Amino acid sequence: MSAPLLDAEHWAQLASDLPAEDLRHVCQLLVRDAQAMLAAMRDAESAGDTAAWQRAAHRLAGGAGGVAARPLEQAARAAMEQPPGAAALAEITGLVDATIMALEERLG
Length: 108
Fold this sequence. Notes:
It comes from Sediminicoccus rosea. The chain has helices at residues 8-17, 20-47, 50-66, 70-80, 86-107. By secondary structure, the chain is mostly helical.
């Protein structure tokens, strides 16, 4: 069994601390930034640019952590510690897509 895409305890804390509109905005920022960071990671992987790969993974990890998306955060943090690679990119792409769907479900 895999870990839930959103940490329930952290999500509950966010939902109690932030007005619904602010929580929605934070999640929308992650969706926008995640798409941009995926594009940057794809470019870095194609170019073999480790520094750009690590910067994009770092930014993605921070955004994912901010919305309780632990599996995505962990995968992005792991990517920060390795050179660009197709397997890591595929895993992160799948996690971004699944996380976006999970956020949409939570926000209604």
